[in-house]
Design goal:
heterodimer, A: 171 residues, mainly beta, globular, B: alpha+beta, two-stranded antiparallel sheet, elongated
Chain lengths: 171, 71
């Protein structure tokens, strides 16, 4: 059971937006990592755009299973490839000035086993179509995680998008 | 040119740098991959809606009646 949450670093996107946010040189001194992301995409005429997650600038051996509700239906889907790739955030077609919320929990990030990730998140939209997501992710790589990259897909994370990286110790 | 934000967790230093040509290419590839995935997701949803409607027709009941049966 986690008994300490330490803010390692945080970032707020400035004017002009940003293609990605990267946390580098993450210390190996914690047990688990927690990322809290509040984002919005510059993608026009869309209520949602997927942000993607990668570790250590590595673009292989990721897989995920996702449960997604969109206000009218529910879908279960799997993906594998170059990233954890289904982190939906509001696009420019969603209600103005709203941001999505995601949380990623990465246990034993500095260990030598494959890295599992629990993810949950929502988009925001004052309309029928808004998304709720639960995901299980896996990075099939034994390297310790030393960097985390959150990319806004092929668009930009708009100004005031934020990301917080916490280190969690269980002893 | 798009930029990226890099936060060095050891030093606390935050920098904003322009994307490299390789990263721009990577983003373009990502856009194509996403479009393909989204199309697949939409097609899957549409297929389910069609299959559901066909089954209701076959059974001769409405969606509300089917929900009642499952409640």
């Amino acid at each position: 059971m986690a008994n300490t949450y330490t803010l390692i670093s945080s970032v707020t996107v400035g004017s002009g937006g940003s293609a990605s946010i990267e946390f580098t040189s993450i210390p190996a001194t914690y047990t688990d990592l927690l990322v809290k992301l509040s984002g919005r995409s510059s993608r026009s005429a869309a209520t949602m755009e997927e942000f993607v997650l990668t570790f250590n600038n590595n673009t292989s051996s990721y897989s995920e299973r996702q449960l997604r509700g969109d206000g009218s239906s529910v879908i279960s889907q799997t993906f594998s490839g170059a990233s954890i790739q289904q982190l939906g955030q509001p696009g420019a077609g969603a209600t103005a000035n709203t941001f999505g919320n995601w949380e990623f929990y990465i246990p034993n990030y500095a260990g030598s086993n494959y890295k599992s990730i629990s993810l949950d998140g929502v988009t925001e939209n004052n309309a029928t179509q808004a998304y709720t997501n639960f995901e299980a992710g896996l990075w099939s790589n034994t390297a310790a995680i030393t960097s985390i990259k959150l990319s806004a897909g092929s668009y930009l994370a708009v100004q005031y998008s934020t990301a917080y990286l916490y280190g969690i110790s269980n002893a | 040119m798009a930029t990226k934000i890099i936060v060095n967790c050891s030093t606390g230093e935050t920098t904003e740098v322009e994307l490299t040509a390789e990263e721009v290419t990577e983003r373009e590839a990502m856009a194509i991959a996403y479009a393909e995935q989204k199309a697949e997701e939409d097609a899957d949803k549409a297929a389910k809606v069609t299959a559901k409607a066909a089954l209701l027709t076959k059974l001769g009941i409405t969606e509300a009646e089917a929900s009642l049966l499952l409640s």
